[in-house]
């Protein structure tokens, strides 16, 4: 892990790329997951229907791999510090949201894989209900980034979008 002296002031190009690729895959998942319930019913009942679960499964596996890579880089390289004059409450909220994001980026693919390939119904149900947390979390994340940019006038949004 990095020390205070080695704390980066910006995200690396790789960290930014992984962030946006994972974000795109998560959004993709939110749109293609609707057929998975029918695919699950067909799989468990042995009745083949015209629903292809493969895009959802492959995107989930990609998210798991990329999130693992991203977490490894974050642990090795670190992340930029929070804005210096940011309140403790906002810092705590931002930290909690990032922690929950990372947790969901691991838990959702793992419960999906366990449900689909392991035929574990409890994991499949957990997958369905846990994914409901993603939309409000995305909303909070985007709102926080926009508030940092437009209201607090910090560089938080720019350091994840602009290459230096």
Explain this structure.
One of its GO terms (biological process) is respiratory electron transport chain. Belongs to the cytochrome b561 family. There is one protein chain. The protein is mostly helical and about 160 residues long. The chain has a single domain (about 5-160), classed as Four Helix Bundle (Hemerythrin (Met), subunit A) (Up-down Bundle), CATH 1.20.120. It contains 7 helices and no strands. Helix 3 packs across helix 4, helix 4 (about 90-120) runs antiparallel to helix 5 and helix 4 runs antiparallel to helix 6. The longest helix is centred in the middle third of the chain and has 31 residues, at about 90-120. The two termini are about 25 Å apart. The mean pLDDT is about 90.
Topology readout:
Layout: H1 13-32, H2 36-45, H3 54-77, H4 88-118, H5 121-130, H6 134-151, H7 158-161
Helix pairs in contact: 1-3, 3-4, 4-5, 4-6
Labels describing this entry:
mainly alpha, 7 helices, 164 residues, Four Helix Bundle (Hemerythrin (Met), subunit A)
Short synopsis of the structure:
With 164 residues, the chain is mainly α. It has helices spanning 13-32, 36-45, 54-77, 88-118, 121-130, 134-151, 158-161.
């Amino acid at each position: 892990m990095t020390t205070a002296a080695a704390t980066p002031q910006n995200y690396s190009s790789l960290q930014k790329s992984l962030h946006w690729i994972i974000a795109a895959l998560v959004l993709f998942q939110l749109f293609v997951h609707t057929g998975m319930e029918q695919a699950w019913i067909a799989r468990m009942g042995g009745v083949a229907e015209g629903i292809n679960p493969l895009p959802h499964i492959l995107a989930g596996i990609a998210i798991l791999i990329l999130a693992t890579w991203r977490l490894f880089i974050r642990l090795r390289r670190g992340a930029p510090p929070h804005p210096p004059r940011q309140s403790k409450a906002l810092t705590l909220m931002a930290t909690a949201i990032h922690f929950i994001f990372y947790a969901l980026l691991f838990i959702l693919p793992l419960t999906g894989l366990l449900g689909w390939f392991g035929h574990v119904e409890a994991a499949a149900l957990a997958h369905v209900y846990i994914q409901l947390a993603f939309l409000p979390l995305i909303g909070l994340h985007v709102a926080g980034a926009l508030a940092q940019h437009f209201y607090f006038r910090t560089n938080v949004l720019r350091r994840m979008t602009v290459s230096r």
